[in-house]
Amino acid sequence: MNVMITGASGGLGRVMVAECAERGYNLFITDINQAGLLSLKQGLERQFKVCVAAKACDLTKAESVDELMSFIDMHGIRFDMLINVAGIDYEGGFLSIDREKIIKIIALNNEATLRITHDILLRRRPGKRFTLIFVSSLASLYPMPLKATYAASKRFLLDFALALRHELKNKDVSVLTLCPGGLVTTKEAIRGISAQGFWGNATTNSLEIVARKTIGYALQGKSLYIPGLLNKILSLLGRLIPRSWAAALIYLRWSKAQVKWLR
pLDDT of 189-246, one tens digit each? Predict the structure, then answer.
């Protein structure tokens, strides 16, 4: 199986890559961080007997993605799976974040994801089932004051993935959306989880378990994976109470946690 993974050198990306390598999949990994990407490639080749191709790419720039596609076409690579991990967030309220950082959230989480998804779907292996995974977030299930742009960008991915699943069903394409809670991926993420206290720890998910179950559920043809019992309960509550109430409750929680986080 040939698998492409974006955002491969980040925390969740690395774990997804390792999970696929353990399963014996051939990998094409990409990330804007060229040094991290090459280090990851070398480590995979030493540890696993799998074919690993790597090429740095800025997914937010069409010309960079076009160059990546030319490289793929030159080598005649076709894919069975795409795992869209690449994404970004900046902590702070809407007016406290630099304007261009706000735009970058949309540029990477949405525009770049659509760009690479469209191109790789056109390069899926003929006559084979194709599996597509989007990394959304538990934040996509609610309107989230103080994380408004990020939550909205992840909501877009959730809705888009569900629609695309039905659109491409007769083309033998399966689409799964992953909506995790907290993930221990960076020092900043760890600070954020700590600042939330009980709720931060209670909604945090194990990277290794998330990666293993995400790929397993995707291969089974499932459409949505929300890791953790508490997160599943919170997602259900989000559907039952008015969205304005959910926004008010989330604001109370985040307004306190973010003060600690940013401090």
Answer: 555 555 555 555 566 778 899 999 999 999 999 999 999 888 898 888 878 889 888 8
Is the Cβ–Cβ distance between 244 and 142 less than 8 Å?
no
The alpha carbon dihedral of 234, 104, 188, 84 has a sign of: positive
Are the C-beta atoms of 149 and 257 separated by less than 8 Å? no
Residues 112 and 118: their CA atoms lie apart, in Å, by 10
Question: Are residues 213 and 234 in contact, defined by beta-carbon separation less than 8 angstroms?
Answer: no
Q: Which of 14-28, 85-99, 168-182, 187-201 has the lowest mean pLDDT?
A: 187-201
Using the Cα atoms of residue 166, residue 3, residue 20 and residue 211 in order, give the sign of their dihedral.
negative
Q: How far apart are CA 164 and CA 259, in angstroms?
A: 38
Domains, the chain, ordered by start: 2-262 (3.40.50.720)
Bridge-partner residues for 140, per DSSP? Answer: none
pLDDT over threshold 80, residue 263: no
Which residues, in sequence order, are CB contacts of 216 under 8 Å at separation 6+?
none
